[in-house]
Amino acid sequence: MIKQLFKAAFKPHITHMVAKVYIPTLFPLTFLICILALALDEFLGFKDGFIKEPFHLWMASFSFISGLFLWIWTYEQLTRLGEGSPSPTAGRTVKLVKTGIYAYSRNPSLFGKLLGFIAVGLALNSVSFCFILSPLLLTGSLIEKVLRQEPQLIEIFGEEYTTYQKEVPLFIPWKIFNRIK
Fold first, then answer.
1. Which range marks the domain in which residue 156 is found?
2. Which H or E element spans position 162?
3. Are 105 and 80 in contact (CB under 8 A)?
4. Please, what is the average pLDDT of the chain?
């Protein structure tokens, strides 16, 4: 199963997209955000962090591994079930994926990326990174999803997507919590 997951998630067009888009933009951007967060922590008096050493590194590791797994799983779902990729630069999906993890959230890859991003803040033990900059980034990403991506998906998939919007939350997988009760 793990082999199938990695095979589908790391098809050549996906790895090309990661190399072309994520590596040259997200890594330098994350580095700049780290510098800003540490400067903010110093300015706000949070330079000692908020989690005792070395527990913050364990939390960062858990957050990163969970986020990476979720990110790979969502990409696998889109490439295998959607017959495309999560990004128009690598060839948009042909079919709307509404099963698996996409039955619980319309943007599960964003949650995986957020966990990976927060892992950096936890590793730095930065209050500003985790509680100021990460929420701002998440808010911006969700606004972009609603204003740009959702209209494109309605245009591509029509009524099937509008029905899916009504049934599945944008980001937080509330259905999972309802099943636990």
1. 2-180
2. helix 159-167
3. no
4. 82
